[in-house]
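Fold sample X.
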Amino acid sequence: MSSLIDTNVFDYVNVLDKAMDASWIKNEAISNNIANADTPGYKRQDVNFETQLAKALRSSRYKTMDAKVGDVKMNRLNPIAYTDYSGFSYRIDGNNVDPDTEGVYLAKNQVVYQGLYQSVSEEFKNLKLVMK
């Protein structure tokens, strides 16, 4: 017997949930970057979930967005932090973190997270409306 969670009703919610996880991990990476801005040899960390998601959606060419989202293999969407520009440093101590730039990235990521949260809320409002 199939449950409601196994149907395509939650396809968008599942993808948005993964995106929110990625945004949270990115927020942690940016916070670590800011905290280590004065640590000699530290290399900034980043998370690039957008590329993974775009690749997952692109694999279903010539389909509707609903079908593309339904075809996404959730186990392949794993946000992972990576070292950004590991061989690059504009400072003598080997650190490549610019606190001002990190602040901009943090603000941008917070806006993204709020947008994702709003999207999930809207999906559940729509489900609630349909169930009435």
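Fold sample Y, listed below.
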Amino acid sequence: MIYLKLFLTFLKIGAFTFGGGYAMLPLIQYEVLANDWMGEEQLLNFIAVAESTPGPVAINMATYIGVQTGGLFGAVCATLGVVLPSFVIIMLVARFYAKYKNSFIVKNCLTGLRPVVIGLIASAIITLGYGVFFPIGISLSAFGFQFFSSVVIFGIVVVLAFKKVNPIYLILGSATLGIVTGYAEKLLFS
């Protein structure tokens, strides 16, 4: 039963989310938490891992969530579910797009879809940002060492990203900074 549920859940996510993995994050988060497949902190940690490993973030997440809930076959079901809608849709689009690309309806449909993609990505950024910067909720104790080190790492990465530094270096550098600040926190506050 878990295999069918994984497949159908990720089929729904793949079918109704436009804009790629980042736009899928709010729906993945909702479904994972609603089904109690993992906790919010564990999900947040894996989003970081999925983002820093090769491959599309949504496929990485589907595979991981599938493994966590149903083992190897669960991973296959979840991954197939998230990939299948895109595969079918892109096959249909490839077949008909050249013929209808100048159609009034097609042009305006695509124009209408762009803002929702940005909105879904913004929603994921806000939700995930809250979990990164305020893992224990917003209170006076939330503004501690972990908060400030996260803000500093975020700031450094944003500046370097605008300077067009290779994303691989950003990921490796931020992981290194995370380890260094973790040790610093341990030394200073233990």
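Sample Y note: The chain has two domains: 1-132, 134-190.
Also: Helices lie at 2-16, 21-34, 40-52, 57-100, 104-133, 145-162, 167-189.
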